[in-house]
Design a protein that fits this description.
Number of helices: 2
Distance between the termini: 22 Å
Strand order of the largest sheet: 1-2-3
Order of helices and strands: EEEHH
Length: 74
């Protein structure tokens, strides 16, 4: 992503008793393939984790979950 700005956002929502968080870009046509995701027991834990992950991401290292699994199997 050299020279290209990537605007990320976090989605936080509840499924049953579990809170789900993911990080993606707003124009992504496939929201099922985020840059990061996690499941948490509380809304606060999900928000804190998403904020910490966004703060830690470096654009040069940013890749989608599906891309990471491709490289792990190679």
């Amino acid at each position: 992503m050299n020279g290209t700005d990537l605007h990320l956002h976090a989605r936080i929502f509840r499924t049953g008793t579990t809170w789900y968080a993911d990080i993606d870009d707003p124009e992504d046509p496939q929201p099922e393939d985020p840059f990061w995701y996690g499941q948490y027991e509380s809304q606060k834990a999900a928000i804190d984790a998403a904020c910490a992950r966004i703060a830690a991401l470096r654009l040069a290292q940013c890749s989608r979950i599906s891309h990471e699994s491709m490289f792990e199997s190679a």
